[in-house]
Structures are given as structure tokens and as C-alpha cells.
Amino acid sequence: MHGDDEDRTDALFQALADRTRRDIMRRVLAGERSVSALAARYEMSFAAVQKHVAVLEKAGLLTKRRNGREQLASGDVAAVRSVASMLTELEQIWRGRIARIDELIASDSTEES
Amino acid sequence: MHGDDEDRTDALFQALADRTRRDIMRRVLAGERSVSALAARYEMSFAAVQKHVAVLEKAGLLTKRRNGREQLASGDVAAVRSVASMLTELEQIWRGRIARIDELIASDSTEES
DNA sequence: ACAACGTACAACCATTTGGTTGTATATTAA
DNA sequence: TTAATATACAACCAAATGGTTGTACGTTGT
Description:
By secondary structure, the first copy, chain A, is of the alpha+beta class. Chain A has one domain: Winged helix-like DNA-binding domain superfamily/Winged helix DNA-binding domain (Arc Repressor Mutant, subunit A). The first copy, chain A, is built from 5 helices and 3 strands, in the order ααβααββα. A 3-stranded antiparallel sheet of chain A has the order 1-3-2. The A-B interface holds A 6, 9-10, 13-14, 16-19, 22, 25-26, 29-31, 75, 77, 80-81, 83-84, 86-88, 90-91, 93-94, 96-97, 100 and B 6, 9-10, 13-14, 16-19, 22, 25-26, 29-31, 75, 77, 80-81, 83-84, 86-88, 90-91, 93-94, 96-97, 100. Chain A binds a DNA duplex through residues 14, 18, 20, 34-36, 39, 44-48, 50-52, 54-55, 68-71.
């Protein structure tokens, strides 16, 4: 029962299901950004952006590092890859379906009575 | 203005941010499944599963085909790939960051005064 | 010392989400 | 024709989400 895994996957997709958070990810993957530097980029309040960063951090998509009074956020590419691998798993399932269809076609053409 | 693109991406990640819907995707990527065949697999009500299927359909992750009184759902691997490519874009941004860091290291070692 | 800055978090609010039950409609089986 | 099956959808509900303002606290600059 890897229900924890599912919890984590829920959190990852949920975190990425918001355009502001995806945009934050683009910035923090490009390099470290302070929370206020990020907040300056969006129309919403500082608190709203701070909460988005917290959601991304909780999901493991970014980490924070203190530097004086600033908190520097940095994107975690391994987490991004773990989401990608979940999608690869889905694609593999689909490949299995295609393989089975191909088999059927092959056996049909040999069973031609 | 690719706001529609972002809407679609929101819907895709949102749709995949639920473990029941991810499980449904595994099944419909493996082959066509009727809504009631899917519903039989989960503890929740038929209506709940039907709504999950509707969410996946709206996001473009599956399509339905009528067959008598049944509605056969089939996973769309292209939609899955489009999510994956969004993640690849993020990974590319990160690669750029690494490349820039490498450049800095290289110039540092030549600028040694 | 004190003002400004950067961050965190609580309280609140409207909307969305994930579930329920109940009803309606079309298709198939008896 | 009538009963059972498969689907869709409305109405409702509790909880989660994405935003707000206000407050508190540590850090930095004057």
C-alpha cells in the first residue's frame, strides 16, 4: 500500500495545476529567487504569492534557503522528473494496448481459414 | 495571448491531480472501458465515477464512443504526451541555468588575477 | 534606536471540488 | 409491453482552494 506515493503525486499535480505556480516554477528553475522578487512579478498580493511558494515547497517542487532576511527559492528538477515519469508510466500502459492489438492483427492474418 | 493554452494546461494537471482519475486513465489507456465497468472498480457511487470520467473527457485526456447503451471511454495518449512536454519545457529551463553556472565556472578559472 | 524590508501566518471570504441522492431518458432483454 | 441496464444531470453538502487584509517578528540600513 503505497498510499503515501499517491498522496505525493496528488500534491505534485495539484501544485502544477495553477498557472501562477507553473510560472513561479519557470523562474525558480532558471535560478534562485527571493519570495519578494517573485511576488513583484504578479498582480496579486505578497501573501498570495507566498502561499503559492509554500504549496510548491510542500509538494517538494522547490526548496528554500535563508540568506539574511531573504528566503531564496530554488526549483527542484528531480521532482519535475518524478512527475514526468508518472506520465511515462501511463504511456507505457498505452504501448501495451497497442502491442496487444498488433498481436491480434498478426494472429488474425495467420488464422485465415 | 495563449490564455487558452494555460486554461487547457490547468485542466490537464487538475484532471490528473486526483488518484481515482489517474487510475481511470490507466484503465482506459490499456483499452476501452464502459463507464459502468469503470464504476464497478471503485467504492464510490456510479455518479461520482461518471463525473470523474466527464472531467477527464473535458480535459481531453479521454474520448467516448457510444455502443448501444454503453459509452466506451478510451485514453488519449497524445494528451498525456502534451502534459509531459510541458514538464520537458521546465526541465529545459533548468538546463539553461546549469549551462550558465558552467559558463561562470569556466570564466572564473580564466579570470584568475 | 528606529524605520523599512522580507517573511510568515491567522482570519476571513467566495468559488470550486469531490462526493452524495434522486430523477429522467435511451437502449436492451424478457 | 414491461423490466432492467447504462448513462446523464440536477440539487445539495462539506471540505479544499485561491484570494484578501491585518498582524507579528527577525534582519538590515540610517
